[in-house]
Q: What sequence folds into this?
């Protein structure tokens, strides 16, 4: 069994993680701490620069980090200004999330099956591909007036806009994923007795998953970007509407607070998607983000 | 034990033309071969002689332009689980573990879960991959991947193994190991093997019968029976004689094919 002997050392290191020696564990921890320090250190430097710039120019139009921090505290817990925005952060996050994920999941629900079919079925591709490429370059903001006519003033228009923005990356990446599956896999499956709808479920879908997850991740980023546009349509709550209110009231500290909350929400949820995708795609060595 | 007289695969008047741009390329001239049940047949020839195309026609991946292929007296119209293809690049499903890859065929037959698992385990053992059963293909060496590919078609009751330069991408040591294992599987499982290779040595080591092909268009030039006793000793004079004979045929066909091309141009 010379083959086994030569193959094992290399192969086991992937699948069966051995208990790392104390020395190596310490250096891995140090490496991780270093990465976190660098990643968190840079925003701190930016905040410092921001603070200095505001102080040196003496502007009253841009809030200082301290003002934003106070606003953030009031937005989260209240007790400072005690106005309409005090201690309302969770309501706004919740409302925005229902719209972000309403639009996102709707886009995934339609985009993934449609992308699988367009990628695999030639007639569908010929039928739909030109239309898709015609509609895709139209900015989501251009749909704003029409979406308000279709869905009225309210959350549905916001969900529609988020859906539009999330739909194309999911659709196109899924199509691309299907098109780039190795033909041999279809041949191998056919020879093993797999055909028709079973081929979709067992081969086309799993083989395209890496590309699908790429699309989902990009779309998810767009969904958070578009929530501000979506909530311009005159909804009373949501992080986007907070920013629009801050603009109308000339309260830039509120605007920046809203921006930071959206950034953090987007960041945290993106990490969740990465964790899920690493778990689902653990078979794919190229995909670990 | 074997019944060498009963034909398993009959290739009758098969030709193949490919459309390339405006013109057509004749990949296969007329091919007529009958392969007996339980035989180990090697197809050997220079690259471009159509040996892989012929194999893919038997597998049902390609349709012949004329002629037909009969397997157990029934014409081939599509890929089927009676003919298991083993590809050079393995074509394992990367999102499935070794056990799931091997159980894929039985799963398609809607067998009960317990039965699928039993079959998968049986063939995992057959190719000696018990310790790697739960790994993904990306965590395997080339030799281990090819073992999975062989087990995958055997688990699906394939009684013809179609192998397209299966060991071409492996290092010499692993290749020898797998050649030995393949011969063991062949004698135990009583399958018919059609094995495409460009290695004279490999053909002499494995085959009962060697079909030497030449290109432009692809045809079978020589049909040689190899009746050396098994296991074959690669350093024996008899083995060397077979190897020299195969090499001589191969090169003379290549030379005459070149001469034909020269005449045409």
A:
């Amino acid at each position: 069994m010379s083959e086994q002997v030569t193959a094992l050392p290399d192969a086991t290191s992937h699948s069966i993680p051995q208990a790392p020696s104390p020395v190596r564990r310490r250096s891995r921890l140090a490496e991780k701490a270093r990465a976190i320090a660098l990643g968190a250190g840079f925003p701190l430097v930016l905040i410092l620069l921001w603070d200095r710039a505001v102080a040196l120019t003496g502007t009253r139009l841009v809030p200082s980090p301290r003002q934003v921090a106070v606003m953030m505290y009031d937005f989260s817990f209240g007790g400072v200004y005690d106005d309409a925005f005090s201690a309302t952060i969770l309501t706004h996050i919740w409302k925005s999330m229902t719209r972000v994920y309403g639009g996102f999941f709707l886009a995934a629900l339609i985009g993934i099956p449609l992308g699988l079919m367009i990628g695999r079925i030639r007639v569908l591709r010929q039928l739909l591909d030109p239309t898709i490429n015609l509609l895709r370059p139209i900015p989501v903001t251009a749909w704003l007036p029409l979406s308000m006519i279709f869905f009225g003033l309210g959350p549905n228009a916001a969900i529609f806009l988020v859906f539009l923005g999330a739909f194309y990356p999911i659709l196109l990446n899924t199509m691309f994923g299907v098109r780039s599956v190795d033909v041999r896999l279809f041949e191998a499956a056919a020879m093993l007795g797999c055909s028709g709808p079973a081929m979709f479920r067992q081969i086309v879908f799993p083989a395209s998953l890496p590309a699908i997850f790429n699309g989902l991740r990009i779309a998810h980023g767009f969904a958070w970007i578009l929530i501000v546009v979506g909530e311009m349509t005159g909804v009373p709550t949501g992080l986007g509407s907070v920013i629009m209110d801050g603009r109308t009231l000339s309260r830039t500290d509120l605007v920046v607070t809203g921006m930071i909350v959206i950034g953090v929400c987007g960041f945290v949820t993106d990490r969740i998607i990465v964790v899920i995708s690493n778990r689902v795609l653990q078979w794919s060595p190229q995909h670990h983000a | 034990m074997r019944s060498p007289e009963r034909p398993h695969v009959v290739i009758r008047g098969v030709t193949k033309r490919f459309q390339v741009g405006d013109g057509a390329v004749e990949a296969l001239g007329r091919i007529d071969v009958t392969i007996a049940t339980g035989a180990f047949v090697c197809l050997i020839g220079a690259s471009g002689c159509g040996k892989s195309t012929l194999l893919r026609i038997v597998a049902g991946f390609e349709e012949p332009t004329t002629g037909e292929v009969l397997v157990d007296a029934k014409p081939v119209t599509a890929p089927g689980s009676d003919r298991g293809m083993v590809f050079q690049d393995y074509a394992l499903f990367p999102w499935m573990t070794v056990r799931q890859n091997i159980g894929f065929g039985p799963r398609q037959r809607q067998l009960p879960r317990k039965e699928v698992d039993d079959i998968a385990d049986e063939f995992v053992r057959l190719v000696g991959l018990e310790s790697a059963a739960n790994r993904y293909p990306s965590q395997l060496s080339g030799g281990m991947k090819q073992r999975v590919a062989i087990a995958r078609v055997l688990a699906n009751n394939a009684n013809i193994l179609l192998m397209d330069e299966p060991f071409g991408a492996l290092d010499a040591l692993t290749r020898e190991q797998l050649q030995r294992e393949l011969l063991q599987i062949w004698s135990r499982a009583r399958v018919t093997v059609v094995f495409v290779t460009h290695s004279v040595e490999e053909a002499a080591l494995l085959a009962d019968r060697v079909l030497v092909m030449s290109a432009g268009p692809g045809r079978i030039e020589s049909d040689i029976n190899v009746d050396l006793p098994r296991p074959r000793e690669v350093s024996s004079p008899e083995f060397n004689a077979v190897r020299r004979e195969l090499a001589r045929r191969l090169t003379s066909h290549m030379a005459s094919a070149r001469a034909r091309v020269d005449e045409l141009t």
Chain B has a mean pLDDT of 90. Helices of chain B lie at 51-59, 98-102, 104-108, 113-126, 142-154, 172-189, 200-206, 237-264. The CA atoms of residues 204 and 243 of chain B lie 6 Å apart.
